[in-house]
Design brief:
Radius of gyration: 21 Å
Strand order of the largest sheet: 1-2
Shape: elongated
Mean pLDDT: 85
Number of helices: 8
Distance between the termini: 53 Å
């Protein structure tokens, strides 16, 4: 794959599935990929050809599919994005695991690298610099469940948007 070449969301999903299958079974096969992604064999065959053309996988006809070094690196990056986002949505925001996983799958493709790095830093900050990060998360969960402190929520949100260019025009707010 050439430097700067971007994979489609679909090809990233195939690459991630291949990566996970290799970790689980030491190889990936068309039928396993089709089952993992709930797609038909011809779709897998087209994707495998595209990934092979980009130098991300090797594929023996009627045999196993393996990642090249570049493929491994790309797959690990996509998988790490998915893992971090799924963990953030589930562990920090308290989303149901299935919702967290589905949302992570959608967002992982669109998240620019600088934002991913910043989100990673935030999570590290949360877990490394706080004596009790789970306490902070429990407190957030109580806030969400009980709407604690929502009485001034509108004014707080107005202050949050100050200076961003996303203020609501014509609506007064307390300074």
């Amino acid at each position: 794959m050439t430097s700067g070449e971007v994979l489609s969301e679909s090809l990233e999903d195939y690459l991630e599935a291949i990566y996970r299958l290799i970790l689980e079974k030491n190889t990936a096969r068309v039928k396993d990929i089709a089952a993992a992604l709930k797609v038909r064999y011809p779709s897998v065959t087209v994707a495998v050809a595209a990934l092979e053309k980009r130098g991300l996988i090797t594929h023996e006809r009627y045999g196993g599919i393996n990642l090249t070094k570049a493929g491994y690196e790309a797959a690990a990056e996509v998988t790490e994005r998915h893992r971090l986002l799924r963990g953030f949505f589930a562990n920090v925001l308290g989303c149901q695991p299935s919702v967290a996983d589905e949302t992570a799958c959608r967002v992982e493709h669109a998240l620019p690298s600088p934002v991913f790095v910043r989100l990673t830093q935030f999570i590290k900050y949360l877990y490394v610099s706080h004596e009790d990060p789970e306490g902070w998360i429990r407190s957030f969960s109580r806030f969400v469940e009980g709407e604690v402190g929502v009485g001034d929520g509108k004014n707080a949100m107005d202050r949050y948007f100050d200076g961003t260019g996303f203020e609501l025009e014509g609506e007064p707010h307390d300074d």
